[in-house]
């Protein structure tokens, strides 16, 4: 054989080995795991991912590299996870809007439904809060809603983008309570909408997490209601829109951990168990309490079912919004 | 240095012409985006403004080129200078293609060898040694120390 | 917090090992970038941007600010020693600086310049310190309509006074706006001009744009011309002492240069460059030694070099106080803040006082460091000029590629880098302005956002743009500045009055 043939044979052998070598769960993880965050460092999703990855390193006994691949409403990073090799060495943060809403409006994605990737675990929710200026005339959610009823289209709520999660939750309220609260998109981050509320330029805003809670505690804003079932520990006194007011407006910003589809069963089991353990560590709990996240360690099947429910709700909501816009001649 | 002087007005006419062409294409694409309404302005509004400005800028470049004195000149490279420039561009393109296949380390050493060969009269051995001495630390610092996920190529 | 308390707080922020190191490294790299031909402050900051991502935001910004004003120091060195300005800000310095070098005064002139830069920078920092909290308080009153007026107006002014013809400013500005619209727009998440490529949704990366336009395009130019490298004369420490005469004649230009630089720095435009032109012209008309300027007078060096450092520093005020960059470098700093998830704007002072005051205090420290770095180490900087092209160019190009890749870990950005270098090369060749393109690219999304926000918020009432007194005031000011040429022509023709506006005539 010539040298060239040796070379080709070597490559062929290496390829065969690479393909044939089965992923063995007992020695997983045997090398570094890449954790893709579909957001920029900064914002609230990146610290959440890094806090989780740090705990997962301990419970999985492996090394995890966090990589930021932002852009395209988080679809660019999600695409990368979905198309990676299903060996458990590429996992990522799944953002509910990128996983569910984006495929509805964008056909150029590598995934269409929850069947196109593996859901390892649910990580956390961040419920939206309806906030108004601290000295605003409304003291309760009922008063605000009453005003919205009397002045359709006149009350304005700051959201983070048209048809973003925060817009959708207002639309859920509009639909369920039969009101017309206008939404104003502030795309430079949540602080801008809060600034506009504090400056009296708009009436209300949908706020999330630590930044909003800090302004509430500083006495600049007050929370009229939380768009989540059950209690939201950071603002224990605020009423829950679905539970107390009885309107089905509850979509939270929610995060899951995802991997490519066809992940070997034993690897998935190991990852799911380690993830659950990681989410339940005291460090993670402390981080969540500080940043306004509600941890929610649902297993693979429950987490997938929740995403499917969200998909159904969003489909109905978007249809309602489209019809309303068509009717209004918008 | 070898240069050819061309009338600057001609370059303004060409750049303006290309600009008008670009602006027209851009504006027609913008028109396909949702316009929205006055109370919910859509994605098309701003591109239409930007495209119109590009059109105005391009037309004014043509206008200025038209009225410019033919004595105003700009210099374009010819001969060796042009070839050196084209070789640089080719080397850069080669580097970028090699980057995905061969990875940062090998691609950058090859690129460095080609460029040095172009710019100096050193012997090939000297060039290779210098390239390796320069590029290995760069690779080490950025990929290993700073942890940048540069393409590793198919061999590493 | 008063300015003094703020400064105290800022100093407490800066005096950590990490931040001091960031200031030192920034000042050091900035000087090197200023000395090396082919890498301006803009490309330099762009290139080092990814490295600052791994630091915390305060340290990152401190380092970038260090690079920015360090490069102002460095660029004067080449101007004086080999008659080649490292940046456009030192064009004026060449005239008298090189003549003085030929008279054997290189060392003394370098010291005079270093001291002038120090004075200009330091006084300007104090100005920024006193002025930007007021500016930020004022900025809280700003809503979308006012910010729209400020961004759109600032961009218009920039593209009109950057120099060159109408088309030379407007065409690149519009091109920058057009490029900024590529990708997913944030308000409705609509994909624009992505041609079905999902990766295009993330849009064009600023670093690729800037490094391509400024850095690689300049290197193409260098390779094409293969300029003979000038070998500078070695300068010994002993020669560095300026004469008493030189010192005495420099104080007045220092003072005038500082004021001019500080004022220009807060206006939109290539303010450091413009201010050095303005200072030179001013020295030429008011200095006691005006007849010597142009023939190697110390005033012609001391004034402009003081002014450009003062301007580089005061340019930080609109960025820190309002979140609006009026130059390409400050635009990059804005981008760095946003990557760290920090919202620039009037709230920066309240939400992130550590960044606000830390950066201001670091500029004071940085200026001291630069003075220390420059006078004794001058021979090191000079030796940088002796690195041959065949070592220097491949190294820079490889770093440039790594830099643009690493911002978003994307090969797409590297390909774009190459395309944009071509665009930059062509535009420069025919005297089109690049700064409006970069600033247009950065301000474009802000303009769009504020414009659409204003309409959403007013529920579709277009009068929102012209009912606010602040917005109207801004528009009137913009109109006055943009039509300055027209006004001058009118005055001359109708009243026969001739007005001189030295700065605007032949800026780079």
From TrEMBL, chain A:
Q: Does the keyword Signal apply?
A: yes
Q: Which InterPro entries match?
A: BUG, Bug_dom1
Report if keyword Signal is assigned.
yes
One family name in Pfam for this protein: TctC
- Signal peptide residue numbers: 1-25
**Keywords per UniProt:** Signal
Q: Which family does it belong to?
A: Belongs to the UPF0065 (bug) family.
Name this polypeptide is given = Tripartite tricarboxylate transporter substrate binding protein
**Organism of this sequence:** Agaricicola taiwanensis
UniProtKB/TrEMBL annotation, chain B:
Transmembrane region(s): 12-31, 43-63, 83-115, 122-142
Task: Give any Pfam family that matches.
Answer: TctB
- This protein's UniProt keywords: Membrane, Transmembrane, Transmembrane helix
- Top-level taxon in the UniProt lineage: Bacteria
All residue ranges annotated as the DUF1468 domain in the record: 15-151
| Name the UniProt record assigns to this protein | DUF1468 domain-containing protein
TrEMBL record, chain C:
- Domain DUF112, by residue range, is 20-438
Provide the alphabetized UniProt keywords.
Membrane, Transmembrane, Transmembrane helix
Record keywords: Transmembrane included?
Answer: yes
| The keyword Transmembrane helix appears for this protein | yes
Q: Which domain of life is it from?
A: Bacteria
InterPro entries listed in its UniProt record: DUF112_TM
Transmembrane segments in this chain: where? 7-29, 35-55, 109-132, 138-158, 165-183, 203-223, 319-343, 355-381, 387-407, 463-486
UniProt name for this protein: DUF112 domain-containing protein
Organism lineage = Bacteria, Pseudomonadati, Pseudomonadota, Alphaproteobacteria, Rhodobacterales
């Amino acid at each position: 054989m010539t040298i060239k043939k040796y070379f080709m044979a070597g490559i062929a052998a290496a390829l065969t080995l690479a393909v044939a070598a089965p992923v063995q769960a007992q020695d997983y993880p045997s090398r570094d795991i890449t954790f893709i965050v579909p957001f920029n460092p900064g914002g609230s999703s990146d610290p959440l991912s890094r806090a989780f990855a740090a705990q997962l390193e301990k419970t999985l006994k492996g090394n995890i590299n966090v990589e930021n691949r932002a852009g395209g409403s988080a679809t660019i990073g999600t695409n990368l996870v979905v198309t990676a090799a299903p060996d458990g060495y590429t996992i990522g943060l799944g953002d509910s809007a990128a996983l569910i809403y984006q495929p509805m409006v964008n056909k150029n994605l590598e995934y269409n439904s929850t069947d196109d990737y593996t859901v390892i675990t649910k990580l956390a929710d961040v419920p939206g809060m309806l906030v108004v200026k601290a000295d605003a005339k409304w003291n309760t959610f009922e008063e605000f809603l009453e005003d919205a009823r009397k002045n359709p289209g006149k009350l304005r709520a700051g959201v983070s983008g048209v048809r973003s999660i925060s817009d959708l939750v207002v639309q859920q309220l509009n639909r369920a309570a039969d009101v017309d609260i206008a939404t104003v998109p502030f795309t430079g981050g949540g602080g801008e909408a809060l600034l506009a509320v504090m400056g009296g330029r708009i009436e209300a805003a949908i706020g999330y997490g630590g930044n909003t809670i800090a302004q509430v505690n500083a006495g600049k804003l007050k929370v009229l209601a939380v768009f989540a079932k059950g209690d939201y520990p950071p603002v224990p006194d605020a009423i829950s829109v679905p539970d107390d007011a009885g309107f089905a407006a509850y979509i939270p910003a929610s995060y899951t951990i995802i991997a490519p589809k066809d992940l070997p069963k034993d690897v998935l089991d190991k990852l799911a168990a380690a993830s659950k353990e990681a989410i339940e560590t005291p460090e993670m709990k402390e981080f969540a309490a500080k940043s306004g996240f509600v941890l929610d360690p649902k297993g693979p099947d429950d987490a997938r079912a929740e995403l499917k429910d969200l998909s159904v709700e969003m489909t109905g909501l978007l249809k309602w919004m489209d019809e309303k816009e068509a009717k209004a001649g918008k | 240095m070898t240069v050819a002087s061309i009338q600057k007005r001609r370059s303004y006419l060409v750049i303006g012409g290309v600009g008008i062409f670009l602006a027209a294409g851009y504006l027609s694409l913008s028109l396909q985006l949702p316009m929205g309404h006055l109370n919910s302005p859509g994605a098309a509004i701003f591109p239409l403004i930007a495209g119109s400005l590009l059109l105005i800028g391009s037309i004014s470049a043509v206008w200025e080129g038209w009225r410019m004195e033919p004595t105003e000149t700009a210099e374009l490279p010819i001969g060796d200078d042009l070839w050196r420039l084209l070789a640089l561009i080719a080397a850069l393109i080669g580097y970028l293609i090699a980057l995905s296949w061969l990875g940062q380390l090998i691609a950058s050493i090859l690129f460095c060898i080609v460029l040095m060969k172009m710019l100096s009269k050193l012997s090939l051995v000297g060039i290779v040694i210098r390239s390796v001495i320069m590029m290995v630390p760069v690779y080490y610092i950025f990929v290993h120390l700073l942890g940048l996920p540069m393409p590793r190529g198919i061999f590493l | 917090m008063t300015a003094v308390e703020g400064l105290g707080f800022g100093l407490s922020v800066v005096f950590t090992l990490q931040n001091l190191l960031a200031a030192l490294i920034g000042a050091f790299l900035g000087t090197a970038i200023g000395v090396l031909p082919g890498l301006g402050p803009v490309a330099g900051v762009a290139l080092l941007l990814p490295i600052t991502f791994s630091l915390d935001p305060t340290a990152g910004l401190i380092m970038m600010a260090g690079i920015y004003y360090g490069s102002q120091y460095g660029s004067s060195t080449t101007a004086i020693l080999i008659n080649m300005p490292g940046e456009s800000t030192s064009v004026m310095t060449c005239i008298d600086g090189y003549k003085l070098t030929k008279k054997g005064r290189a060392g003394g002139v370098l010291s005079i310049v270093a001291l002038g830069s120090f004075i200009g920078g330091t006084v300007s920092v104090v100005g920024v310190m006193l002025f930007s909290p007021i500016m930020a308080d004022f900025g809280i009153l700003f809503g979308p309509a006012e910010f729209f007026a400020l961004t759109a107006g600032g961009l218009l002014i920039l593209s009109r006074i950057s120099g060159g013809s109408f088309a030379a400013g407007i065409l690149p500005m519009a091109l920058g706006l057009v490029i900024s619209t590529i990708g997913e727009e944030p308000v409705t998440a609509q994909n624009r001009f992505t041609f079905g490529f999902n990766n295009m949704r993330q849009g064009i990366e600023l670093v690729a744009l800037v490094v391509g336009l400024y850095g690689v395009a300049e290197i193409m130019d260098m390779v094409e011309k293969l300029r003979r490298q000038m070998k500078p004369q070695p300068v010994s420490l002993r020669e560095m002492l300026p004469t008493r005469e030189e010192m005495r004649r420099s104080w007045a230009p220092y003072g005038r240069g500082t004021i001019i630089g500080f004022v220009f720095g807060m206006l939109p435009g290539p303010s450091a460059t413009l201010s050095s032109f303005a200072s030179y012209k001013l020295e030429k008309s008011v200095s006691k030694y005006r007849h010597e300027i142009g023939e190697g007078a110390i005033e012609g060096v001391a004034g402009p070099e003081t002014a450009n450092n003062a301007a580089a520093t005061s340019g930080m005020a609109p960025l820190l106080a309002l979140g609006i960059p009026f130059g390409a470098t400050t635009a990059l700093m804005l981008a760095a803040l946003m990557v760290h998830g920090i919202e620039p704007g009037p709230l920066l002072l309240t939400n992130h006082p550590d960044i606000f005051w830390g950066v201001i205090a670091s500029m004071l420290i940085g200026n001291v460091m630069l003075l220390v770095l420059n006078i004794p180490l001058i021979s090191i900087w000079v030796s940088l000029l002796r690195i041959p092209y065949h070592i220097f160019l491949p190294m820079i190009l490889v770093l440039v590629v790594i830099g643009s890749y690493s911002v978003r870990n994307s090969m797409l950005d590297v390909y774009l880098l190459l395309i944009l270098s071509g665009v930059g090369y062509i535009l420069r060749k025919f005297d089109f302005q690049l700064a409006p393109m970069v600033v247009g690219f950065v301000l474009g999304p802000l303009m769009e956002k504020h414009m659409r926000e204003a309409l959403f918020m007013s529920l579709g009432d277009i009068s929102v743009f012209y009912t606010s007194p602040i917005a109207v005031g801004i528009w009137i000011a913009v109109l006055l500045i943009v039509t300055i040429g027209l006004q001058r022509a009118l005055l001359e023709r109708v009243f026969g009055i001739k007005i001189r506006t030295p700065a605007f005539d032949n800026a780079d």
